[in-house]
Amino acid sequence: MAHKFADIMFTDAVKSIQIDYGSRKMYTRMEQGTADYNNLIGPNEAAFISARDSLYMATINETGWPYVQHRGGPVGFVKILDEKTIAMPDFRGNRQYVSVGNLTKDDRISLFFMDYPNKIRLKILGRVALVGLDKPDIITKLQMPNYRGHIERGFVIKIEAFDWNCPQHITERYTLPDIEKSVCALQDKITDLESQLANLKPQ
Ligand SMILES: Cc1cc2nc3c(=O)[nH]c(=O)nc-3n(C[C@H](O)[C@H](O)[C@H](O)COP(=O)(O)O)c2cc1C
Fold it and tell me: Are 51 and 105 found together in one domain?
């Protein structure tokens, strides 16, 4: 099977619906070829992940329920360790430990990285190793010295597959730093115009 995301996600049930709705033929092309692809992080994926400040993470609980939670931090809090591995700190939250509990029983996760201003999203499937604070070789790589979060553990994620999504139905949203960048240029312009105006006033 070639496209690893399709390999994992196109189950018999999914394929059957693709047949019913006429898209199966188109998607069989993704499954042709012998060499796997969409399973190793390349420069595009690495740059995209390194520029994110948050993601959504789905785990599976013991009764089969999917559980989605948000993870966030400073830009670049998800580290690229190698072409098959990423890692991120797990900051202390409300101490329900739903994701961590789920991961002790089933190490599979689905990640969703969003770039709202550019309407781009990246989906990742992987397997998580929970890394304790007693593993400084990993934990030191995840530390963010100027960030208020308290690291409780690391998530080291072996990538199994990824896929990029189209921009459909994504509304552009901007962070405060994004807005400040644009507003800063406008403020400079206003200051400049105000000083020109002041010079025009009769003395
Ligand atoms: C004081 C405090 C209260 C929180 N309350 C909630 C909450 O009600 N719902 C929620 O989804 N996250 C809440 N959070 C954020 C979560 O604790 C955080 O996202 C954590 O990583 C969730 O992990 P889990 O859902 O896997 O247990 C809270 C965080 C703190 C520090």
Answer: yes
User: Quick one: 143 and 56 in the same domain?
Assistant: yes
Return the ligand 1 atom nearest residue 72 CA. 19
The residue contributing the CA closest to ligand 1 atom 2 is 94
Distance CA(36)–CA(4), nearest Å, equals 6
Taking alpha carbons only, the member of 55, 27, 60 closest to residue 124 is 55
Give the number of domains in the chain: 3
Instruction: Decide whether any atom of ligand 1 lies within 6 Å of the 69 Cβ.
Output: yes
* pLDDT digit string, tens, across residues 133-189: 999 999 999 999 899 999 999 999 999 999 999 899 999 999 998 899 889 999 999
Verify that 21 and 71 share a domain, yes or no: no
Domain residue limits at 23 = 1-36
Record the pTM: 0.91
Q: Which amino acid is at 69?
A: Q
